[in-house]
Amino acid sequence: xxxxxxxVRRYVEIWNQPDGALRAKAAAxxxxxECRFVDPIADVTGPDGLAAVIGGVHERxxxxxxxxxxxxxxxxxVLRFSWELVPDGGGESVVIGTDVLTLTGDGQVEAISxxxxxxPAAS
Length: 123
What we know:
Elements: H1 3-16, H2 20-30, E1 31-39, E2 42-45, H3 46-60, E3 64-75, E4 78-87, E5 95-103, E6 109-118
Parallel strand pairs: 1-6
Antiparallel strand pairs: 1-2, 3-4, 4-5, 5-6
Helix pairs in contact: 1-2, 2-3
């Protein structure tokens, strides 16, 4: 497993962790304290901020998980990968996106920019 694969795996595990305390610990282990996460609906700083955003996703989409799509792409200190939010038992994705992570020299994440390619229809 490459370092890139390991970072993606750990990041996805944070998103898929249903336990808030374990999610916060995993986020603190991977992200710097000043890490900024920004996407079309959130702009937060720090591991606790990201853990809270993820908690909201778990509330809105119970029984779903993030799954990487394809291979991660990386250059310099930047990593990009696509993902989909799918029901635990399989089925069609409800959200598809791409996240761009900026890494420190020791492999921690110091910035995350998220983009949505597919979102649920407004109800």
